[in-house]
Write a structure and sequence with these properties.
The complex is a heterodimer of chains A (324) and B (287).
Chain A lengths: L5 H16 L25 H21 L17 H8 L1 H32 L6 H9 L6 H12 L5 H8 L11 H15 L1 H13 L3 H9 L4 H12 L1 H16 L3 H6 L11 H10 L4 H33 L1
Helix pairs in contact in A: 1-9, 2-15, 3-15, 4-8, 4-9, 4-12, 9-12, 10-11, 12-15, 14-15
Chain B lengths: L20 H26 L20 H8 L3 H32 L3 H13 L4 H14 L6 H25 L3 H9 L4 H9 L4 H17 L4 H4 L8 H11 L4 H21 L1 H7 L7
The chains are: A mainly alpha (324), B mainly alpha (287).
């Protein structure tokens, strides 16, 4: 066995446990489970946090549910209860239906692209590759930049008049295309821009996953005569299960909530062709003055994300149990 | 021969050895170029006059101009927005670290059913989409006269960042040994003394993570602050860029310059604190 450089080892373990438990490693593990170490008065310490939650998250959530049963317009002092009408409207509203579909395209599309590219990059940059630190740092950088800023940059690439993409198209003898004002290409571009910006997160999660796989497994498979493809398919991929779960759930939630980058690139248009539920909530409240209806959309979005997260979590964790 | 299950072996071959190295290198190179392309195009655009219609893929051949950056600073108020962001992100991050660490302590050290319920609520709050609470939150803030105020946006940012912070702190504290605290208690320290003199000094690594995740998150936040902050005096960087961009959509060079200025602090901090960023990575995508 070769001697490991200690710093590298420490860093990798750090990443691995960050991803596995979302926490950096503690100095030493707990000796035994703790129960009632402290008296009830210690609970006072979380009162400030709970007070903030109550005022700025729970109250708005509850009040949003209440609003969703009214026809309030957002500013006038008078409003009336209209029962389930806003929710019934969600089911008949063709605009909401197509926006919901687009939102799923954002969520599922981004998740797919990010897993393929993120896992590909992790596999490529795992092990000794020259310049891999620099490559990782550059690929990760956009994760830290505001989607508003990245969206502004990407607008310069895809815009009609002097956009970089159209310049290439014209140079190759083609005609300028209005990339951002056609529904299909607008949606595709938003999926790509969102996936590429956050591909660094998936890459790091998979890199940590790969580094937590003991080489003994691969070596054992090698001794059993498995070829490279078989080793990848039967040893590496199944052992990446926790990384898959973390990355897929993060990307799915991120894609379903998508808001910022749409605002900058297309504003949700043309019409509502590239809108997500999030941007539609903003438009419905601030432009169409339908506060009650937009509150109903907010409740629906929360329920959709909560249900899908719980389902995805259950499905991905069940698969992990089966392997053990 | 000290091989543990979590050891990095740089000598282990890549899992997919049958793919030629050259192909792998091309793939990585393409991805690196793709990631740098938007930054490059923003740079060339911002250095050209509005009337210069040469392709933005080509570096400016005429004299470089600073006019766009001047416009971003004067008309876009980008520097004022950055100061606002420093204030809002700085205060929010400090509050989140303090309130998060305090709130996590009872959750990690007192496993009653009430506290388990609080932890579950905390995880549930992490899933609430910003736009789901936007409408009622906006009316609440307007009743409190908190729209376009620093304290209003700071309270909202602290509240939306706290669940992840509490989650990280309590998970970390649970992995700390109780024995040290017990020893302190036997020596006569009160519960709160042992918290302040024993636990809090041990929280440095997780505080780095929480601080970076919160700081970057608040610095970049747009979905809520874009509606809460609409005046040039209070706007933070993301709402300022979005607003300048929509007003100046015919003046893309100035918009590109504004967006570039906004990236500089992030890149500088990233270069110096890369080690800590690697730890805080995963949480950074919570927006």
């Amino acid at each position: 066995m070769s001697v490991q450089p200690p710093r590298l080892q420490e860093d990798a373990t750090t990443v691995a446990s960050t991803v596995a438990h979302l926490i950096p490693p503690a100095p030493r593990p707990a000796r035994r489970p703790v129960k009632r170490f402290a008296g009830a008065s210690v609970n006072l310490l979380y009162v400030p946090a709970l007070a903030l939650f109550a005022v700025f998250t729970v109250y708005p959530l509850v009040s949003g549910v209440r609003l969703s049963f009214t026809d309030w317009d957002g500013y006038s002092p008078s409003w009336s209860w209209i029962g389930w009408s806003n929710y019934a409207r969600l089911f008949t509203d063709a605009t909401f239906r197509s926006v919901l579909l687009t939102t799923f395209v954002y969520g599922i599309g981004s998740t797919l692209v990010q897993q393929v590219l993120g896992l590909g990059l992790a596999l490529a940059l795992d092990g000794k590759v020259r310049g891999r630190s620099a490559a990782k740092a550059i690929i990760y950088l956009p994760v830290l930049v505001s989607p508003i800023v990245m969206g502004t940059f990407y607008y310069l690439l895809f815009q009609y008049d002097n956009g970089a993409l159209n310049d290439v198209v014209v140079a190759l003898g083609g005609e300028r295309h209005a990339w951002l004002s056609t529904a299909a290409s607008g949606v595709t571009i938003i999926v790509i821009v969102n996936s590429i910006q956050f591909v660094g997160t998936s890459m790091i999660i998979y890199l940590a996953g790969l580094q937590s796989i003991s080489p003994e497994y691969t070596e054992a498979a090698m001794l059993d005569g498995a070829n490279a493809w078989q080793r990848f398919w039967t040893v590496t991929l199944p052992l990446l299960q926790p990384a898959f779960a973390t990355s897929i759930i993060l990307n799915l939630i991120g894609g379903l909530k998508l808001f910022d980058v749409i605002q900058v690139l297309t504003g949700g248009g043309p019409g509502t062709a590239t809108s997500s539920v999030s941007t539609l909530i903003g438009t419905t409240y601030f432009a169409n003055q339908a506060a009650g209806y937009s509150a109903a959309m907010g409740v629906a979005l929360f329920l959709i994300i909560a249900i899908l997260t719980v389902l995805a979590n259950a499905a991905l964790n069940r698969r992990r149990l089966e392997q053990q | 021969m000290t091989t543990t299950t979590r050891t990095v072996t740089p000598s282990t071959p890549r899992p997919l050895t049958w793919i030629p190295n050259s192909l792998v290198a091309v793939f990585v190179l393409v991805m690196v170029v793709l990631q740098m392309l938007p930054f490059y195009v923003a740079l060339t655009t911002s250095l050209k006059a509005k009337t210069d219609l040469s392709s933005q893929l080509i570096f400016p051949t005429k004299a470089l101009i600073v006019e766009n950056f001047v416009q971003a600073a004067t008309q876009g108020g980008i520097f004022r927005a950055m100061l606002n962001s420093v204030l809002v992100a700085g205060v929010s991050t400090a509050l989140v670290c303090i309130l998060g660490a305090l709130a996590a302590y009872p959750l990690a050290r007192r496993a009653t059913s009430l506290n388990r319920a609080v932890l579950t609520l905390n995880v549930g709050l992490m899933m609430v989409p910003a736009l789901s609470i936007l409408v009622p939150l906006y009316s609440l803030l307007s009743q409190m006269r908190a729209l376009n105020t620093y304290w209003g946006v700071i309270l909202v940012m602290v509240t939306t960042s706290l669940p992840l912070a509490i989650f990280l702190y309590s998970a970390f504290m649970r992995s700390l040994p109780v024995s040290v605290e017990e020893a302190a208690r036997i020596d006569g320290a009160s519960l709160f003394q042992s918290l302040f003199y024993v636990i809090i000094p041990m929280l440095k690594p997780v505080t780095a993570t929480v601080g970076i995740v919160t700081g970057v998150g608040v610095w970049n936040e747009y979905a809520l602050s874009g509606y809460i902050l609409t005046t040039p005096e209070t706007r933070t960087i993301a709402p300022a860029i979005a607003s300048f961009f929509s007003i100046q959509s015919s003046n893309l060079p100035a918009a590109a310059a504004a967006a570039l200025i906004a990236v500089v602090p992030i890149v500088v901090v990233y270069l110096f604190l890369q080690k800590y960023f690697v730890r805080g990575l995963v949480g950074a995508e919570k927006g």
